[in-house]
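Figure 6 in text form: structure in, sequence out.
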């Protein structure tokens, strides 16, 4: 599988950068939470966290 391909049948992971007061930017999707965390550790200088959206809640 292409390392940049995101499966449509499994969970995806997103990096949320910033805070509610100053604004939030979302990056991704990533195939695994570890991939998302590794990317954020190398590319984000603000507060960040890995988020896994749940299907069917919106």
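Output sequence:
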């Amino acid at each position: 599988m292409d390392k940049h391909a995101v499966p449509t049948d499994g969970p995806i992971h997103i990096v949320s950068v910033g805070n509610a007061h100053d604004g939030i930017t979302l990056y991704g999707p990533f195939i695994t939470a570890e991939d998302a965390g590794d990317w954020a550790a190398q590319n984000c200088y603000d507060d960040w966290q890995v988020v896994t959206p749940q299907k069917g809640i919106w």
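Caption detail: DSSP finds one helix and three strands in the chain.
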